[in-house]
């Protein structure tokens, strides 16, 4: 993707939260700069399972990885079981980024990847006084407004 004056390449590994692939997850996490933990806003169990995924990432990488908690399926807002506030609260507890998206409608998907790109080590921006500064954390919180049993982790 193009980001400011650079081209960055994002390689995504989607584990889809399936237990049969669980043994492979540590090898994905070990070599990743970012882990995106996704839950379905219409499925409370998928939200509850995100703690396990975040803990797994922290156990493997500590704080040396960017983690983003993503509430997906905002196009099904009328079936919502997890509030935006609950997502924001969990993200704050874990000191990670948060955003809600709709992969189906394309809502906030580009914003998610743009912010991930900006948060990657080595990406720099200019501060108001013209000095270069490295972006270390980006707040992806967006409070505006596929059924899966488990949350997933894309690292």
From TrEMBL:
The keyword Nucleotide-binding applies. InterPro entries: P-loop_NTPase, Rab, Small_GTP-bd, Small_GTPase. GO terms for molecular function: GTP binding; GTPase activity. Pfam families: Ras. It comes from the Eukaryota. Keywords: GTP-binding, Nucleotide-binding. The keyword GTP-binding applies. Residues 125-143 have a biased composition (Basic and acidic residues). Residues 122-143 are annotated as: Disordered. NCBIfam families: small_GTP (TIGR00231). This is Uncharacterized protein.
């Amino acid at each position: 993707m193009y980001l400011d004056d650079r081209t960055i390449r994002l390689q995504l590994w989607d584990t889809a939260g399936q237990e049969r692939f669980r043994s492979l997850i540590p090898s994905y996490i070990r070599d990743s700069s970012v882990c995106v933990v996704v839950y379905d806003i219409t499925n409370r169990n998928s939200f509850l399972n995100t703690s396990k995924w975040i803990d797994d990432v922290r156990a493997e990488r500590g704080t040396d990885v960017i983690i983003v908690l993503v509430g997906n399926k905002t196009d099904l807002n009328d079936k919502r079981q997890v509030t935006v506030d609950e997502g924001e609260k969990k993200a704050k507890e874990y000191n990670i980024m948060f955003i809600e998206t709709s992969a189906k409608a394309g809502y906030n998907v580009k914003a998610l990847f743009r912010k991930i790109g900006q948060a990657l080590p080595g990406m720099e921006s200019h501060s108001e006084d013209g000095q270069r500064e490295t972006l270390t954390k980006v707040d992806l919180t967006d409070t505006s407004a596929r059924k899966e049993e488990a949350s997933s982790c894309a690292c």
